Amino acid sequence: MLIAVEGLDGAGKNTLVTGVVDELTRRGAAVSTFTFPRYGSSVFADVASEALHGEHGDLRESVNAMALLFALDRADAAAQIRAALTESDVVILDRYVASNAAYSAGRLRQDASGDIVRWVADLEFGRFDVPVPDQHLLLGVPATVAMERARSRAATDPSRPRDAYERDDDLQMRVDSVYRQLAAESWASPWIEVGTDSPESVEPAGLVARLMHE
Length: 214
Fold this sequence. Notes:
Layout: E1 2-6, H1 13-26, E2 31-35, H2 43-52, H3 63-87, E3 90-94, H4 97-108, H5 115-127, E4 135-139, H6 143-156, H7 164-167, H8 169-184, E5 191-194, H9 204-211
Parallel strand pairs: 1-3, 1-4, 2-3, 4-5
Helix pairs in contact: 1-9, 2-3, 3-4, 3-5, 4-5, 4-8
């Protein structure tokens, strides 16, 4: 099973992934994980990050150019994901194609039915042939909560300064709206929304039972 975990910056995706991995491992499943963007191991992700922190001239201004960099990062990892799927029972992706769709749509002030969402899907699932998730998980904490968590994280961890997307509260609100639209229409695969109060409210055992259709 290939599971993509989505949500705003600061929503608590790492907390959720850790809990689900621990529960699956406790049940005896072999689990592999990937985190996108792959900062530090992908030139495409690193260039995107540098652009989001003010480098590379006007690169950041192009929605399509930034989306392409994030898509190339996943295309570069596609063979590794497929290999993990043959070796593991479950592969969990912390951010995936839906992030590109939601953030690109949010930047262009489009909704989930907009041209950019179709472009991202055609590019990544089509031309780049990255694996399609079997299941999406949306960590649906309120956008205001996620943004405050991102601010607090940056204030206490000098290695995690907020990038241009994270500093744009209006963008985060629009992205949150697109994520919820994608979930409502089961974009690319079924979606489960969890953690609507906080990421800590998710009970990993119960969530894994839902994922395994128990």
